Every structure is written in structure tokens, then in C-alpha cells.
Amino acid sequence: MPLRSPRKLITFDWAMKRLLRSKANFEILEGFLSELLGEDILILEILESESNKEHETDKFNRVDLKVKDNKGEIVIIEVQYERELDYLQRMLYGTSRVITEHQKESEPYSKLVKVISVNILYFDLGHGSDYIYHGTTTFIGIHDNDKLQLDIRQQKQYGNIQINHIYPEYYLIRLNNFNSIAKTSLDEWIYFLKNEEIKEEFKAKGIQKAKKSFSILSMSETEQLAYARYQDDLRYQASLVESNYGLGLKEGREAGLTEGREAGLTEGIKKGMEQGIEHGKLEVAKRLLAKGMSIEEAAEIAGITVEMLKRAT
After folding, report:
1. Among 21, 139, 151, 263, which lies 20 to 30 A Cα-Cα from 281?
2. Closest-CA residue to 91 (of 123, 71, 66, 118)
3. Count of domains in the chain?
4. Is the dihedral of CA 55, 240, 13, 119 positive or negative?
5. How far apart are the C-alpha atoms of 64 and 15, rounded to whole Å?
6. Mean pLDDT across the chain, nearest whole number?
7. Which of the 8 DSSP states describes residue 2?
């Protein structure tokens, strides 16, 4: 009997490993990218590199999928489950590496490949209310606040109109911020990424084919077992992260309490000493008053204020 799973569909990252590399399934990936980028995307080929490993244990430092479209641009897609504070730098490193990988010796800089980085995140990155962020590079004048543009010759050379079109672009899909209400065709894809479910009424490009292709029940027993192991690995990795995070948080709190107690004790001793000194000065002043000295003279000799001495007598 084939192994059954509570999920109806496989996850997108597993599909990128096993299904979307096939030309027969390019339509699915083209649909997702077309909805995300807002233009019709045609994939020419799947590219491989040193940063695009096959084995699941290479998850932490690799690109999940790298494709080349009909415009010669390269799209890299990564699905990330674990919390990484330096993920933004990792994105920068990933795009830079792809650019250098595809730059031939002696080629002019004008031939640098355009890279689009798509990041599907199952953890909270940064602070913001939206669930999709788009990052580009622009140059703004510090005096006139105008946007720097390519001139006519540069536009012909690069085949682009805007400067940001020749620099890498970044898409951050923060699934934890998505409320699972699909209002647009792009939202339908985001809904699937978060819930591993595609509704019958969804009309986004490529999504109904994904529903058929990603069915767990259509997989062979061997494929189902491999997928189950992969999910177990993900849960184990998530457990390690949460355990280490929780342990670190607990240790941090305990250290903070200890430091707080020590700091409180030190402060208490200091305050007690100050109060003791003040009390001693008052006693001296009171004795001077008892011997007939004026309140002003007694306060001056004891080193306290006249007001303090008046309050104590």
C-alpha cells in the first residue's frame, strides 16, 4: 500500500527538486513567476551551479532552483524554513555569485546577466506588515531629489530603459504575514505556498496544472517514502532551531535575572550606606543643637542642609 500523507499536495520546494526541473512542468513554474513578476515569463532551461545542490542536507547554503528565461535573465528561487538573521546578506551573496558564474572572461560589463532573486520564507524576516516585498536599485539626487536615468546610448546598449532593470531585483515572500485570503491571482499562489492546498476556483496561471502534478496520491510508493523522509528532515531541523532558540532564550533570561539580582544587591548596599551616612550626620547635628549651637551652625558642621535638619527635629 502506498504511504499516505495528511497533505493533499507536496510542498513547493519538493516540487522544485523533483518535478519542476522537467520541461513538461515548465508551465507551472512559468505561471508562478508570471503572476509574481507581472509579465509573461517563458523558461528556456534549468541551470545548475555549485550553489545549486541536489541533496537535502545541502539545504542551508544553496539556491533551490535557477532558471533562464527568454529574455536571457536568470531567476533564482529559494525556499527557506529556518530563521536566519543574516538572510538579507545571504540573498546578496547568492545574486552576486550567480552574476560572476555567468560572466565570461574578457566580456564587457554591459554583458553582465540580470538576476531576479525570489525568496519564499516560512519565518519572520525584518519588521513590516506586508507579505510580499520587492527590492530594486535606484539612484536619487541628494540635492534635486531627481532619479538618475539611462541616456539614449545606454538604453540601446543595455536594451533597457531604467537603471533598476540592469541591477538585481529581490522578491521577499513572507508567508507568515499572509492571512490566507486569496484576493488576486498572485494570492492564489501564495495561498498554496502557505497551505499546500489549491482550491477548485483558483484561476492563476499554471496553478491548476500544479494541483494535478503535485498530488501526493499520484506519486509512486518510493516517491511517497522519499517525500515523507524529506518532511521528517524538515521537522527535525525546525525542532533543532526551536530547541536551540528556546534554550538560548531561557539561558539569557536566567543570566539577566542573575545580573539583575547582583545589580540590585549592589545598588541596595550602596543605598544603605548612603542612608547610614546621612543618619550619622543628622545625629551629630542633633547633639550640636542640644549643646546650644544654632541650627545653621550645626547643619554646616555636620555637612547637611538646614532644611534636612529642620525635618529631623
Report:
1. 263
2. 118
3. 1
4. negative
5. 10
6. 80
7. P
- State the pLDDT confidence band at 216, using cuts at 50, 70 and 90: confident
SS3 209: helix
The residue among 123 and 301 whose pLDDT is bigger is: 123
Side chain identity at residue 129, one-letter code = S
Gap between the Cα atoms of 286 and 293, Å rounded:
9
Residue 311 located in a structural domain: no
> Is residue 192 domain-resident?
yes
pLDDT confidence of residue 249? 56
- Cα 79 to the center of its chain, rounded Å: 11
For 112, which DSSP code? P
Where in the sequence is the domain holding 175, given as residue range(s)?
Answer: 12-219
Kindly state whether residue 78 falls inside one of the protein's structural domains: yes
Within 13 Å and on the Cβ side, how many CA atoms surround 185? 15
CA angle 247, 251, 255 (to 5 degrees): 170
How far the first Cα of the chain sits from its last, in Å, is: 95
Strand ordering across the sheet containing 115-121: 43-47, 65-69, 74-80, 115-121, 169-174, 132-135
Distance CA 64, CA 120 (A): 11
Q: Residue 16 CB: number of other CB atoms within 10 A?
A: 20
Q: Which grid cell sits at 89?
A: 546578506
The C-alpha cell at 103 is 560572466
Q: Is residue 300 part of a domain?
A: no
Mean pLDDT value across residues 254-268: 62
pTM: 0.69
Output the pLDDT for position 155.
85
pLDDT at 130 over 70: yes
CB count within 10 Å of CB 209 equals 15
